[in-house]
Amino acid sequence: MTDLLIKNTRPMGGETADILIRNGRIDAIGPDLSADGVKVEDGGGRIAIPGLVDAHTHLDKSLLGYPWYRNEVGPRLIDKIDNERAVKREYGLDAHVQSMRQSLQSVSYGTTLIRTHVDVDTDQGVAAIEGVLETRRQLQGVVEIEIVAFPQSGLMRRPGTLEHLDKAMALGADLVGGLDPCGMDRDPKAHLDAIFTIAEKYGKGIDIHLHENAELGAFSMDMIFERIRAHSMQGKVAVSHAFCLAASDWNMTQGLIDTCAELDVPILTTAPPSRDVPSLKRLHAAGVRFGAGVDGFRDTWGPYGNGDMLERAMLLGMKNNLRRDDEVASALYVCTTGGALAMERAGHALEAGGRGDVVLVEGETLAEAVVTHAPRKLVVTAGAVVARDGQSLRARP
Ligand SMILES: [Zn+2]
């Protein structure tokens, strides 16, 4: 927690102003601010935005720092899952080192808040959770990391996983994860009852991966809604991907979206170019909390990606056919303040009392900053400078 005065910026692309941060929070935004003894940074007239928010990634999966991974993995989901466990064993992948590498790369792009799903399975138990917890400890004050205990290899189909999931929560994971209760586990009732029971036991929320399409996804969503009502977990259960919300049956998807609004179910997208994704405009119109993330990148699942949430805002805009400047700015909102709200973090905005997370970006307007996503001039976390000219100040392992 630090004090900092950033002179000569354009908050959210508006009029020139200074931003004063005290004790890690924004104290004031206005013209010609001064503060005795406070460190000063010159914004150079650049646009200031809040810290970028990566609301869905996998810090333990990245192969950053390794030579290029030659991907020859089969087409099915289970091929990718089985292959990943084999590669982790072969490489002796260290979740702490990999999560440090990815987190610091994300910081260099201006991300100050991350929600990561971390694998829990019967091969490695909770080792990856422990590794990412250590990363979180070491990067305190640099980037906030929220951890979801994620049964990537399935829950019911791999007996013993549930016990590891329970242990992960006891160690300090923030949310319980889940994965395609029908498509992956083929036992939606047992899968969902298990994760809701653990969440209730630890008083934590849930963030479930739901890739299931159309009617199958809608069926799983309905079973999730039933349990939110039964456990009174309104506002505590998020759904990642939710591809079923992009199904062509408009009446079905509108019903699901309306229920997400009613039960306050945040939707988290990664806006993958390969899939139809939930509509930003429809979710915003219904009042559904909506965040975005880079998903896993440069891992055994696929070769693409770099961790840049400004680039992800562009992908979100492209997937949603957003062209007007105000529309592109709404995609950026999802990747900043909107994503933070989806993670139950209020005050992640450039306003007095808000968190002192500020990123200086290049461009005349917010839309240009998204489209060009040039290297970030300055990244500030809770008043501390953590990256400059596209480089995190802390070296990557
Ligand atoms: Zn994921």
Q: Describe it for me?
A:
The protein has 397 residues and is α/β, with parallel strands linked by helices. The chain is globular, with a radius of gyration of 20 Å. 35% of the residues lie in helices and 22% in strands. The mean pLDDT is 97. The structure holds zinc ion (ZN).
Structural topology:
Layout: E1 4-11, E2 17-22, E3 25-30, E4 40-42, E5 47-50, E6 52-57, H1 77-91, H2 95-108, E7 111-119, H3 127-138, E8 144-150, H4 161-171, E9 175-179, H5 188-202, E10 205-210, H6 214-230, E11 237-241, H7 250-262, E12 267-269, H8 280-286, E13 290-292, H9 309-319, H10 325-334, H11 337-342, E14 358-361, H12 366-372, E15 378-381, E16 384-388, E17 391-392
Parallel strand pairs: 1-4, 1-5, 6-7, 7-8, 8-9, 9-10, 10-11, 11-12, 12-13
Antiparallel strand pairs: 1-2, 2-3, 5-14, 14-15, 15-16, 16-17
Helix pairs in contact: 2-3, 4-5, 5-6, 6-7, 9-10, 9-12, 10-12
Bound molecules: zinc ion.
Gist?
With 397 residues, the protein is of the alpha/beta class. The chain has helices at residues 77-91, 95-108, 127-138, 161-171, 188-202, 214-230, 250-262, 280-286, 309-319, 325-334, 337-342, 366-372, and strands at 4-11, 17-22, 25-30, 40-42, 47-50, 52-57, 111-119, 144-150, 175-179, 205-210, 237-241, 267-269, 290-292, 358-361, 378-381, 384-388, 391-392.
